[in-house]
Every structure is written in structure tokens, then in C-alpha cells.
Amino acid sequence: MTRLDRLSIETARNLNDTGIFMSIDQRNFRNALGKFATGITVVTTKDNKGGLIGVTINSFASVSLDPPMVLFSLKNESPLCDIFATTENFNIGILASDQESESNLFAGPTDNKFDQIEWVEGANGIPLLTGTLANMECKRAAAYLGGDHTIFVGEVTKLEQSDKEDALLYFKGGYKTL
Fold first, then answer.
1. Residues 41-81: pLDDT tens digits?
2. How many whole angstroms separate alpha carbon 171 and alpha carbon 178?
3. 83 by DSSP, 3-state: which?
4. Each residue of 90-138: pLDDT tens digit?
5. 130: which residues sit within 8 A by CB, 6+ positions away?
């Protein structure tokens, strides 16, 4: 665990101990956030036994250009949180408009997900989905507790982009395209 990891966990503990609670209705908050269109990604890694892991994520953002860094978040109660917290590498595929089926596949509890799609192994040994707008190979830099989610920050170590231009989006509870 890095110094930054320890600081972020301690900061989150202190914030949680203040007794501050959210007075905004959760349904209204979700509805408001649903009016913000987001791109859709699939984040992949391997567990400590070498098993292939992938999950659909729309809570994705850039963090820094120098060094190149990105983030995504997962609900704390997800069993994948422990996997991403202990793995050194993960990859992020930004889905194209024709990859709604991939988004649905990795959003659910389906077994053998990687048997149902085309993928290649990245230079870091982690799966990369084919047909995406872009793929980023990342080294985990930090993890922060943020309310009911954990925010994972990764340094991009390799980047590939396709000639595709149309993105798959999520807006008001459903898929949209550009």
C-alpha cells in the first residue's frame, strides 16, 4: 500500500466519522445525474488466480495529462472492489456505438464473459476488448474511498485508438449514440 493509499483511506475515515449525512433524496439525485450523458467503458483485469475479470463502468474520467491518468469507480459492496484494490494492472476499453451487447454482457453476472467476445491480451497481460474506440492499459496508482464507492486511479502506460468515431453513451437510464 502506498503512502497515497494510506492517506486517502485515513481521510475517508475522518470524513465518515463527522456524522454528516446526505439530505438530498437519492432518487432525485440519481435522476439529476442521469441527465448527464456518459461514455461507457469495460474495465478488465485478472484476479490473483489468473481469472479474467471485466465490468461495465460509466463512472470514468480523465485525471491528468502529465502523467496520463484516468479514474473509474465501483460500488464498495461489489466483490470486484477487492480484486481491483489488489491487482497492479487494469485496462479500460471505451465502447463504440455498436458495442451495446458488450456493455450488457459485462454489466451482469454472466459466467465466462470472455468466451462470448473477441479480445486480445495487452502488453500488461490483461484483456483488451476488440472493436472499441480506444483501449488504455493502466497501472493502478491509488484507490480512494468516496462515500459508497471506491475510486480507482490508474496511470495510462499504453494507449491504442481505432478509426471508429461513434461512441456508446448512457443517458436518462438508457443507451444513446453519437
1. 999 999 999 999 999 999 999 999 999 999 999 999 999 99
2. 12
3. helix
4. 999 999 999 999 999 999 988 899 999 999 999 999 999 999 999 999 9
5. 117, 118, 119, 120
Give the DSSP H or E segment for 73: strand 68-75
Q: How far apart are CA 101 and CA 110, in angstroms?
A: 12
* C-alpha span between 176 and 178 (Å, rounded): 7
Helix segments in the chain, DSSP class H? 3-16, 26-33, 80-86, 100-107
Please tell me which residue, 89 or 23, carries the higher pLDDT value: 89
Q: How far is CA 9 from the centre of its chain?
A: 19
Domain 3-16+38-160: which topology?
A: Pnp Oxidase; Chain A (2.30.110)
Q: How far apart are CA 13 and CA 155, in angstroms?
A: 25
Q: Which residue's C-alpha cell is 470486484?
A: 80
Where in the chain are the domains? 3-16+38-160
What are the grid coordinates assigned to 177, written together?
449514440
The grid coordinates listed for 174 are 438508457
